Amino acid sequence: MSTIPMTAIGAQRLREELTRLKSEDRPRIIQAIAEAREHGDLKENAEYHAAKEQQAFCEGRIAELEAQLSSAQIIDVTKLNPGGKVVFGVTVDLLELETEKKVTYQIVGDLEADINQGRISISSPVARALIGKEEGDEVVVKAPVGDKEYEIVAVHYV
Questions:
Q1: pTM reported for the whole predicted model
Q2: 52, 65, 49, 50: which is closest to 112 by C-alpha?
């Protein structure tokens, strides 16, 4: 099994979700199944079938999280010394040269990516263009909508 790069914070988020699923959701679902069983005929018991469906989803997510965490290569960017270069896990402030719009992205693993939270995947076109560059460098990102030019304003190792 190959390893999957993941930030320390991303791994912590997954561990917290796993703990919640095991300690809160799983017992609640088991209780709902027990209560639904008390209502009699299971063939026509919608509450029972809904609870069993929730149980299947919960157990599937638990298995998925355990597999992801077991194959994760956790990288703590605060312990790296990349010499000012953009590497996995850093947060980068960018200036889009055409529109002069400022954006901030953290480069994370595929499992952690969430563009709404400013976390982009290491395999995204933006991250691939940024890796290895330094503050002050200009980069061209080959995106599906066309080339975009950015200047790296700042690199944060947090």
A1: 0.78
A2: 65
